[in-house]
Amino acid sequence: MSADQKPIPFARPSITKEDRHAVLSVLDGPILTHGPRCSAFEDSFIQTVGGGYAVSTSSCTAALHLFGIAKGFGPGDEIIAPAMSHVATAHAIEVTGARPVFVDCEEDGNIDRTGLEKAVTPATKAIYLVHFLGIPAAMKEIMEIAGRRNLPVLEDCAVGLGSTVNGNHVGLIGDAGCFSFYPAKHITAAEGGMFVTRDKELADSIRQYRGFHYDRTLIERKLPGIYDVTGCGVNYRMSELQAALGGSQLSRLKSVLDSRRRNFEQLSSLLETIDGVSIVRPIRPSDQQSYYTMCVVLDGDRKRRDGMLRFLSDQAIGTSVHYPHPIPRLRYYREKYGYDAAEFPNAERIADRSLDLPVGPHISEDDVARIASVFREALRRT
Ligand SMILES: *Cc1c(COP(=O)(O)O)cnc(C)c1O
Q1: CA-CA-CA-CA dihedral for 45, 259, 380, 345, to nearest 10
Q2: CA distance linking residue 54 with residue 39, whole number of Å
Q3: Segments in the chain below pLDDT 50
Q4: Which of 36, 67, 21, 69 is closest to 239 using CA atoms?
Q5: What angle do CA 141, 161, 149 make, to 5 degrees?
Q6: What residue owns the CA closest to ligand 1's atom 14?
Q7: How many angstroms does the Cα of residue 182 sit away from the middle of ligand 1?
Q8: What is the pLDDT at residue 217?
Q9: Are 379 and 14 in contact (CB under 8 A)?
């Protein structure tokens, strides 16, 4: 094994001739933003995930934020947040002025159900959760807890495209879900997001807040340029260039998911028998994951994990860590709210002892074999 082998990146966007054509055709026309391609992308997206309403946004973070804006969350409110997620899940709460109340994760990286129930107070206004690396959270129990307290549930599905619970797509199990089209995700629009819900009123409200909260859209204006504004909105719209790329990518989703699953299964068959290595997977048979990555938790401490990362990187194998810190341990949150590691043992374990191996469609069967053999060698040496 030598470092002059072809690098295997953790993720690489795949851009086809059709994708290029779709984007260029936007530039040939007169409409560059929030036009027919956005509507078409929203329509095909909601059909793909199974029905309801979809609102395209400039990013997943924007979509998450819009939910809090539309619900009017603010100072004095508490919102339950997963300690183990992308910081965006918590920032979307924090920017509204509400306080994120962090809950540890379970073994599969998803929010701990007992901790969740205990974290609810009279000030709690909502539950935000993530499907950790596309592995569905325990939606049945979470929805029961939320139902008892009448709390809305927002699902961060940024890497959950293709994840289902009993055949129901994530994002449509709670009150709303948000997806990401950042380049490293299942499909990309360069940047972009999608807000989905079965609640028509909520979708309409999100659509208004997304575009300045005008009282009428361009086509609804009888006199050009004349409108009123009925709320305090933002501009979180998606451009036609992004929608054209996203829509074109979405048409290949099935083959992307098939190839991710194949790579994941091949890699797990090569690694699952190794002592001291545990692969994070769904723990319920009802749950289908989206094969975003293979997260392996190692025996040992953070130093050993970091040594593994260094070795794999020296051998040109791309890796990632999701996430390098539980959110409440990140400096901003630690300094603002304080941090007690003892409250987050599972999040600490994943943050400090796991690493993620690539399984994206850019990986060949030979690449998977090489990743496995370099990984074994790294284990022996660290
Ligand atoms: C990538 C990601 C986000 C942020 O998505 P953007 O589209 O970049 O805003 C949020 N949550 C999770 C879980 C993610 O993986």
Answers
A1: 20
A2: 9
A3: 1
A4: 36
A5: 25
A6: 158
A7: 7
A8: 80
A9: no
- For tokens 């999100």, the residue is 206
CA of 88 to the centre of ligand 1 (A): 6
User: Is the overall model pTM greater than 0.85, yes or no?
Assistant: yes
Query: What pLDDT does 221 receive?
Result: 84
Q: Rounded to whole angstroms, how far apart are CA atoms 223 and 218?
A: 10
For the Cβ of 85 lying below 6 angstroms from any atom of ligand 1, the answer is yes
60 lines ligand 1 (CB under 6 A): yes
Q: Ligand 1: which atom is nearest the Cα of residue 193?
A: 7
Residue 106: how many CB atoms within 10 A of its CB?
18
The two structure tokens encoding residue 368? 């998977």
Measure Cα distances from 149 to 44, 175, 320 in Å. 34, 14, 37
Alpha-carbon span 189 to 181, nearest angstrom: 5
One-letter-per-residue 3-state SS of 137-149: CCHHHHHHHHHHH
90 lines ligand 1 (CB under 6 A): no
Helix, strand or coil for residue 89?
Answer: helix
